[in-house]
Amino acid sequence: xxxxxxxxxxxxxxxxxxxxxxxxxxxxxxxxxxxxxxxxxxxxxxxxxxxxxxxxxxxxxxxxxxxxxxxxxxxxxxxxxxxxxxxxxxxxxxxxxxxxxxxxxxxxxxxxxxxxxxxxxxxxxxxxxxxxxxxxxxxxxxxxxxxxxxxxxxxxxxxxxxxxxxxxxxxxxxxxxxxxxxxxxxxxxxxxxxxxxxxxxxxxxxxxxxxxxxxxxxxxxxxxxxxxxxxxxxxxxxxxxxxxxxxxxxxxxxxxxxxxxxxxxxxxxxxxxxxxx
Length: 277
Description:
By secondary structure, the protein is mainly alpha-helical. The chain contains eleven helices and two strands; from the N terminus they run H-H-H-H-H-H-H-H-H-H-E-E-H. The mean pLDDT is 85.
């Protein structure tokens, strides 16, 4: 079996740790989201929904914990969606041409960059979970050690699949677009509907019918719901809304994200195979 992707992966990780500004912002950004946006929004929502009666006999989860899953999903979305910009700059400085001219298979180039993005996403996810627990996030409450470890593995599998899908999408765009400004505009345009038409920060129950339908198949919704399944449990109440997650629900999340990642991988390979050296 060939392992040429390890060279690409190692190069991306060396860049990540060598450029201190990138490393610092990647590690601090999740903490800032939780400390500022998370606490401010959770206090506001808790006050607004304090008079809404909760479902009797159902565990109540505070909005901060509900939103914590969404912050993980949101942070992974932006980091993976903009992760393909490394290909844009490699192309601009002719480094991509040298890589494509090497014996490394093109699939390994995509795979190496994708796995480096997954590693970064894992780091950010652990930071959010750890710091969130310090701030009072109710992740894994009442879980045994085995259940906690199983849930963490499930969350990481979801994060990895989601990250690969959006990294492959970003890489396809980077290969196609000729200038960084154009890519920045496209990624910003893509991120807005993906973020707002999702259950990352608020329930989708009151969405208009068409938006609720679109949200059901939104990868960001699938990731956020999957994280809540593993971190908050299968039966809980938030802001008076009763959530019940079944095995079929989490299976749908995994299936949807896997199909999305495979579709984006096919698109990335198609675009890479059309690149001339």
